[in-house]
Amino acid sequence: MADGGAVRRVGTGGAAGLWRPGDQILWRYRENGGAGIHIARPVTVVRDDEELLAVWLAPGTQCVRPVLADGTPPHQEPLRTRYTKPRTVVPGRWFGTGVLKLARPGEPWSVWLFWEPGWQFKNWYVNLEEPLSRWDGGVDSEDHFLDLCVYPDRSWGWRDEDEFAQAQQDGLMDVAVAERVREAGRSAVEVVRAWGAPFADGWENWRPDPSWAVPLLPEDWDRTPAHLST
Length: 230
Known about the structure:
Elements: E1 8-10, E2 23-30, E3 37-48, E4 53-57, E5 62-68, H1 79-82, E6 87-93, E7 99-103, E8 109-116, E9 120-129, E10 133-135, E11 138-141, E12 143-150, E13 156-159, H2 161-169, H3 175-194
Parallel strand pairs: 1-2, 2-11
Antiparallel strand pairs: 2-3, 3-4, 4-7, 5-6, 7-8, 8-9, 9-12, 10-11, 12-13
């Protein structure tokens, strides 16, 4: 694992299009069923190479998140109307402990590590999504609703199956995409059962460089990507 390095501004990029430890970038998600960005999280690069992008989402980071037009958080809205009511985006902060996000090039999921206070490891979270698209300021994806939770004893379970079904019912995901997501989920389960990377790589023992500052949310967080690649 690689870490350390001085903090640099968002979107610097490095040799061969790779970022260096300490660079600050945006990790964003497009809205489902639309082209706009509805989640933007400034993060600090931990490692970036041909095999893995690892980033740190620090506690207190100012982010952008979706809400219903009346300000209601989506998870508080009944499922039957959660994806059909008008939405907007608002600034907020990432509270609680930080999150380490890991993504391998071309893979249709990322793996997030969560800790309890005091760095007591809690779980891995497999977020099924479009493979990350890289641009000069960060990475973009689209969330696919269905997820996996993986625990230190190597047990696991599906998450948000109800949201996955509702998204299909509301036309946010067609049959072909839904089957592709299910196949990605099955592939992720096989990695868990084999205890492959990144679960066996010791990332739960990683800690952020104490010299890293919390990244700032840029005013143009929703800008159109440049130099888009996968």
